[in-house]
Amino acid sequence: MRSKKSRTNSLRILNRLGTIAIVTVLLIQVLPPVTSADLSPVEPGIPSYDANFENKPKASSTHELGYNIYTRVEYRTFLAKSKGVLKIYLENKGDNDLFIYQYGLKPGGVEDTGITIHPGQERYLGMATTFIGDVDSVDVKIVISALAKGRGKWYDYGTIYLNPMTLTVEGSTPSGNPTYVVDRGMRFEKVNNLVFPLGSSLRSEAVSAATAYPGEYNIYQICSIFDRVSEKIEYVSDPPDQEYWQTPTETLFSCGGDCDDHAILIAAMIEAIGGTSRVYLTDDHMFAAFFVGGTSRCDEVRDALRAYYNTPLMVYFIEDEYGAWMVLDATKSIYAGGSDLAYKACDTVNVIDVSATFKDMRGSVNISSLAFCDKISVDGIFTERADSRYASGDTILIYYDITDFTLRSSEGGHEVWLTHSIDIYDDGGESIFRKGTDGEFHETSAKPPDSVWTSTSYDTSWLGKGRYRVLVTVEDLITGERDETSAYFEITTERAIMPAPNIVWVLCGIAFVGYFVKRKKGLL
Questions:
Q1: What is the pTM of this model?
Q2: Which of 91, 146, 172, 251 is deepest in the core (most CB within 10 A)?
């Protein structure tokens, strides 16, 4: 069974009909084709990484000088059977300079570093990881190796174990194999219209982040952009029952936004430095990604990120016909390449490419599914029919979605204007019924629909044995674009009644199917 929820806002029209016959059970998925000509993705360079640690001072003092330190950590959700990742900061509350030459977690690993922290100063030490088993919580200790300076000499304290802390584990790591659907419709157009043309303030912010790792477009520039967004942009939810996608510039200036605002900003900043980005969209979440290159580059990218963040991280990629795309989820991870993998548990993940040539890539109006059903409710939930055989006199129920239609936007809202028509042919190809305009949907609303669903029922009482074809045609009256699709059915019995005028009725309706913003309620 396939189901679709909708808002009850239907237009029902009664029309007369002639002959109909057996339906071949058919669910047609018509998706806009994606070819290699759609994108010309750019690979980032992967130069060698220079950590640029300070040199460790020589310890020459034999007297302990004392120290007073305060540590804090930042992290996201911890999941069972995964690696927990923490950002570690250290504040020097004492009177002596400190030099940190190692840091880490126990259990976990210890990493080399080289950072001087003056009295009253807080410095970021780096990231550390610990493996989390199938447990509800785990106790860890921050570990540092430090020297303290007094009277011009350094005393080496060696390894210092700080007080333990308990990390709460929130569930297990999701798994699954979702279907990735390339979107060339309204959401594709909406995201790209928010990104392009790239504004000067956005470009300046992206360049400012990238210049920390100058040169041609490279992997460390992307990490720097991610870190800037992660640190500068706070998570702020949309108002209740509303879904507002900000422009990247709005997000920069407000320093706040929800998951879609973070994702669109990161994607736009990557485009601003010459990279190739996209966003992935589920029912309740959005995250960005960038093109890595061929799948053979994943190990090289993974090593580069482990050098950049100075700890052995888990790095996640999504693969398609172009190659590999690395996940950039600033609301679910504290580092580029991290993820809580919630998208893995979804049935469908929508793929929205970001490209300055998006107007040439935009899909036209599309009948995205066609199903013959046993039942269709008034709110658009349907049960697909189990077989393709009908008796004369049975009622045939047809359900289909219309997507990728054009929105004509103005201050008054978003206008959608569609018509659909039905044609029926016998097995010899002769037209036995034609309804030029079977229904119309025309509405302007503040929140545009993701798609429009249509249900049509037919009484087949005067159809005899035979095979028939139903042709559905949809026209977008704003652009004049059309799409059509067919399905076949068969009547297995003799005609139930002889043809007579005014005895057969067809019930057609068009209604909104789940507003996109409704389905995205609670995005993170």
A1: 0.69
A2: 251
pLDDT digits (tens, 9 = 90+) for 305-323: 999 999 999 999 999 999 9
The range of the structural domain enclosing residue 246 comes to 179-359
Task: Give yes or no for a contact between 356 and 349, defined as CB atoms under 8 angstroms apart.
Answer: no
Question: 372-419, pLDDT tens digit by residue?
Answer: 899 988 888 889 898 878 999 998 888 888 887 877 766 677 788 888
Q: Are residues 393 and 507 in the same domain?
A: yes
342 token code pair: 């919630």
Lookup: tokens for 492 = 């297995």
Residues 370 and 315 in one domain: no
Strand pairing class (482-491; 389-390): parallel
Q: Which of 307, 326, 359 is the last residue of a domain?
A: 359
Q: How many domains does the chain have?
A: 3
Amino acid residing at 518: K
Residue 149, domain CATH: 2.60.40.10
Cα 226 to its chain centre, rounded Å, is 16
Distance CA 196, CA 34 (A): 21
In a domain, 39, yes or no: no
Tokens describing residue 49: 């990484």
Quick check: 469 and 488 in contact, CB under 8 A?
Answer: yes
Q: Is the dihedral of CA 203, 206, 208, 213 positive or negative?
A: negative
DSSP state of 268: H
* Cα→Cα distances 223→34, 329, 400, 513, Å: 29, 12, 43, 39
Looking at the structure, tell me whether residues 123 and 229 fall in a common domain. no
Instruction: Clarify whether residues 202 and 303 are in a common domain.
Output: yes
Cβ burial, residue 24 (10 Å; 0-12/13-18/19+):
middle
Count of Cβ atoms closer than 10 Å to residue 35 Cβ: 7
Please tell me whether residues 353 and 493 are part of one structural domain: no
Listed residue (397, 401, 466) closest to 31, CA to CA: 401
- How far is it, in rounded angstroms, from Cα 230 to Cα 314? 18
